[in-house]
Give the backbone structure.
Amino acid sequence: MEPTKKHDVFQAIADKTRRDVLRLLAEKKELPISAIAAHFPISRTAITKHLNILAEANLVQSRKSGREKIYHLHPEPLTELKQWLSFYERFWENKLSILKHVVENEYPPTFVTIGGFFCLHLPRH
Amino acid sequence: MEPTKKHDVFQAIADKTRRDVLRLLAEKKELPISAIAAHFPISRTAITKHLNILAEANLVQSRKSGREKIYHLHPEPLTELKQWLSFYERFWENKLSILKHVVENEYPPTFVTIGGFFCLHLPRH
DNA sequence: ATCATATGAAACCTTTAGGTGTTATGTAAA
DNA sequence: TTTACATAACACCTAAAGGTTTCATATGAT
């Protein structure tokens, strides 16, 4: 029978250390295990276990280069979290938060008012 | 010293049962403990513990009515999760997803093109 | 060939998570 | 005032989480 993945994305991000590892990999693009461990007060072995859990949830991937195992972020599974969250947004977000979302998370849009329409210019990329 | 909250929102949602409890409360608005427990194959005592963890994370609140303790969803702490997620969105979302987000999660906006500006009309509420 | 380094793997420990069952207490209803 | 019911409070259990240390193995550098 399928070896049923033991850790999902919800469990993977439950631990602060693992969230910190994700953040580190987001910033540094890719790092071998020892370099990751150097950022934390716990043992390399412990970090390896956290990396295994993150890998089970498919939040990180690795390639081997010589004697090093180099990890990088694989953010796609976070979409599951986003979907889960989106269900609850309607319980607390008001509609103005559309603007808030855009303003806070994207390049500053340009606002214009044209004939009673409240518009924002979305730059094309 | 402050009895330092033991469970945060990340840990609270790590457990499937607790996520199911949240979903149930989102649908049913409010329910006493026994009614909640009736939806699950585990004991009422176990559900009470899950509710305590959710309450520590401030994801549920309760009021007492006679001999019943009635719980309801308190979604605000999920904003912390949303903020955490938003950091990673840029690693997998392309910019078109701004539109995607608006279209999927909000009332259909109106699109207009004015003098080279690609605008969308955000209805005011 | 030797030595240092990066990782893997195993054994072990302590605390917490998630569950059980039993008993006690407060409130509603008969 | 009994009786039934909803919850609280314990004591307890097992397995998993998060950590440690030690030893082995593979690879790069001298």
Summary: Chain A has a mean pLDDT of 83. The CA atoms of residues 70 and 94 of chain A lie 43 Å apart. Chain A has two domains: 9-73, 94-125.
